[in-house]
Structure formats: C-alpha cells, structure tokens
Amino acid sequence: MRRKKRETKRPNIPAAVLHWILFTRHYLVQFPLLTAFFGFLLLLFAAFAFLSPLPPIINHHNHSSQLKNGAKAEESTLSKETSSFHVPRSGGRLGSHLWSSRSSKFYYGCSNASESFETADTRKNSDRYLLIATSGGLNQQRTGITDGVVAAYILNATLVVPKLDQKSFWNDSSDFAQIFDVDWFISFLSKDVTIIKQLHAKGGKALNPYRMRVPRKCTPTCYLTKVLPVLNKKHVVQLGKFDYRLSNRLDPDLQKLRCRVNYHALKFTDTILEMGKKLVQRMRMKSEHFIALHLRFEPDMLAFSGCYFGGGEKERMELGKIRRRWKSLHASNPDKERRQGRCPLTPEEVGLMLRALGFGSDVHLYVASGEVYGGEETLAPLKALFPNFHSKETLASMRELAPFSSFSSRMAALDFIVCDESDVFSTNNNGNMAKILAGRRRYFGHKPTIRPNAKKLYKLFMSRHNKTWEEFASRVRTHQIGFMGEPNEVKPGRGEFHENPSSCICEDSAAKARAGLTLTPQNRLDEGHKDGKENINKNETSDVTDELSIEDDQDLTDMDYVDNGTAVKGKGLPGEMLLEEFFSD
C-alpha cells in the first residue's frame, strides 16, 4: 500500500513518451548501452516534471474588482503580453502626408474688406466711446477682443483698448500692452475702427462709463436696439463679461473684420514672440517635424467635466471635492458624459490615437499642459509611447522663463506660439485655445489639426484588448476622418466662427484647374479677390481656431483657465467661487 500511495503522487508520464518507449523496447533490450542511456534520460524527465511548479491560479474576479476600485493602473501599454493587442513602436507606412494636407495648397486665407465696406474715416462718430471688459483666460479674452472690435464697428463708436481680466481665478495682472503689441493693434485696424488707448477727460472731468452686459450671441440688430440707444444717451458705455457676446453668424464683411482682428491685428509683444520663437527653434533642432499636444488633463478640468477615469474611490473623492466648488453644477453622470464624447481622453489614450494615426515612437512631442492629475504615473504610458517628450519647462531654463512664469496669460502665449508653429497640433478637448488655434491653422494653410472624435473612440478604447492592433488602428483612422483639420471638413457656418472661419477661406480655382481637379461650389474665389491672394504675413500675428463646435453657448468642458498650460503657482480656486465667475457664464 505504501508503494502504491507513493506512486500516485508521482507525476504521470505523457502518453507520447509511453508510446515511444513501447515502440523502442525491442531495440533497447538488444543493446544494453542504449538501454542505460535512455533510462538516464527518462529519469531526468521524471525529475523535471516532479519539481516543476503548478501553473498559477488567477482570480479573474478579484483582478477585475481591483481595476474597478482603481487599486492600480493598467500595465504599460507597451508591455502587455496576455493580449493580442501589441502596440508597435513604429507608426507604420502612412507616409509623409501625416505632416501636411495634400489639398491645402488649393486654399488660402482671405480677409480683405469688400469695396462696399465703409471705412472708419467715412463713418466716424466722435461722441460715442465703447469699452470692453474681457473675461476668462488668454484665449477666451482673445475672442472677446475680436468681437469687441466688430461691436464697435456695428455701433459706429470709438473703441478704447480692451481691459483684460485681472480679477478672476487667473489672477494675472497683465494689461493689454503687456500681452499684445498695442500700437500695431491700433494701426492695423485704423481703416476699420478708430481705437484709442484710454479715455480722455472732457472739460477737465474724467468720463465714467455706463456699465451694462449684452446677451450671448447678440446679433447686429440686438446691438443696435439694446446698446446704441444707451450709447447715444450716455456717450460712454462699458460692456462687461465680454466673451461670446456676438452672434456666430454675421454678414461676410463683418466676418472678415473678425479675421483681420484675430489673425493680423492681435500680435504678441516682441518679448513674448522672441521667447516663443526660441522654443520653436529648439524643437526644430531636435527634429524636422513635431507634434504639439494640448493635453488638458488638469484636476480642475477633470472635476468640471464630471467624467470618471478609472481611479476608484480616491479619484471620486478628490475630483468630487473640487467639483463641489461650483454650486451651479448638476450631479454628473460619468457614463453618459463619456458616451456623448464630452470627456477628455487620458494621456495614454491620446498616445494610442496618435500611434494608430501613424506617428511612431521617434516623433517628438511638445506638451502644453498644467498640472496633470496623477502626475508622472498618469503621464508614464504617454511617455512610453513617445519618449521624446518636451514642454516649455524642459526646453528653457528657469531664468529664461522668469519674466513669464508668474503670469498665466504670458505662459499661455508661449504655449500658443509653439502649438501654432507645430507641424501637427492635437487637442484633447475643444476649449478656447483649441478653437482659436484650429481656426488660425485653417486660415494659414490648413496645417493638420487633430481633434479626437471622442464619441466614437471611447467604445474602441474600452474594448481594445479584444482586438488586434491592426484592427484597432484601422478603426481609429476611420473614426478620425473629418477630425483632422482638412479643407472643407466642416460645412460653412457650422461650429464657432473662431474655429471654422469659412468666410475667410478662399479656394484657389486656378491652382485646382492646373492640378486637373474638379472644383467644388464651396469657397470659390470671391469676385473681390480675383487679383490674387492677399499678402498675408503670418508673423504679423499669433493665434488660431479649431474644429466643429457647439453653435450655442460654450461646452461645459470649455474651461479656459488651464489652456495656458499653467495656473499661477500657489493660487487655487476659491471655495465659494460661483460657476459664472469661473466659467464666464
């Protein structure tokens, strides 16, 4: 019995080996040396089978539970071995068209006024003064400045150089002249609107403006009925919280005025431009081409979005605490927000999207971002995908950044310049900076501008480990059609004008004819531009606008305070801050 018991513990010899032994028994008996040799091999095999450890037992339920509770993030994207989803290091063979649009040469920015557009010297009214108090971060204020010039033209009023927002969360004391070249601004627009630096005293007495606010998306008729009577009576009016206070749809000449302001008149100061150009040059020294990414994965941004990113109870508590600062926000439904494409992608998801689009690990990435939620642990998968990872802080010394680092708008301007000059710009949320940059990049040559199709991509990311990389990448490329900044990607009039300035994009029919391409009815050369392209000097300005957007008010995720890449150090959101104060209603 003891022998039998011991034999039951011995591991079974595989059937194949037994068959082999029976087959060769006849020959082994006849050759004793062979018998001894194969007996030794058999003993080695048995010892190996006995000493080998049992296969590990995996508790799939506990593993799934840990992920749901956010105990630990997934392993690095590049090191998964248990899935058919293996991310390649190269971007594939999609070619050089990744860095430019094939049809961009057939379109150009056109913002010259028509002959019927009245100039400032023919319609000047010396007794009306309009002041604009902008709201929000740098790029939100830029939309206000642009629309403020158009509002002054509609009202036939003299515009006082706009006031920048110095009191809200951004807490930036910079005035207009410290961000933009004020003399250039006044001079460039002198034929359209009379602009003065400040109100002059009248009869030795300072003029106090009458303060009012106009509705969002106010039309020209709205201005003429609501503001003009007050302006005629008070003579000096200040419009407060001036962001998105002008209709998206205007007649072509007013839209072209918007473009002249945004893309030509608003030029950063020489100090900001010089530092921005240094950053661009240092990126060019590292690589011929580079991608700029506006990551938008800051804690306040995530809390405001109401989305969930897999960090378990810890994440829910931390972001929930921040979200409660806005009393006007309703309870969030993270699953619904993600299904509707309102959640920013995680840094890893952004990296996977870029790799699927054809950008390999050798590509250099400039990241414009503030404090990333989760820090280096959150950024690790993106850095694994794109090791050549840069920011203004890694490209410039603390001494070089010192004149800018205490001012959020100036830091935002540096990021803006690098993103504008990049070969490819990718946004992660359609905020003000993304919109402005996308429109600008369309106007100055349709440089590739990637906006994640989050509504379609979220399901793909959720199920990616059930797919091969090839299948995943193919679907990403399919979903991103129409979200890459190509000409005619967005229908004229759709989205915010600042991101889709269709009235200011003209088609070069002669170039298309030479190329033998069929003309589309959209954006043919205007009769007023038959003499050729405008003499556009891109260095005259420094801003842009992006993809399809919501026609009405800003999207809930449009929090411009982080589009500068940095909030002022040591400053946090006041606990009692209202949504209107933070979000600019």
UniProtKB/TrEMBL annotation:
The molecular function terms of the Gene Ontology recorded here are: glycosyltransferase activity
The residues that cross the membrane are: 31-51
Q: Which spans does this entry mark as compositional bias, Basic and acidic residues?
A: 524-541
Q: Where is the composition biased (Acidic residues)?
A: 543-553
GO terms, biological process? fucose metabolic process
Q: What keywords does the record list, in alphabetical order?
A: Carbohydrate metabolism, Fucose metabolism, Glycosyltransferase, Membrane, Transferase, Transmembrane, Transmembrane helix
Disordered, as annotated region: 522-553
Q: Which family does it belong to?
A: Belongs to the glycosyltransferase GT106 family.
PANTHER family assigned: O-FUCOSYLTRANSFERASE 16
Q: What is this protein called?
A: O-fucosyltransferase family protein
* Organism listed in the record: Populus trichocarpa (Western balsam poplar)
The organism that produces this protein has a lineage beginning with: Eukaryota, Viridiplantae, Streptophyta, Embryophyta, Tracheophyta
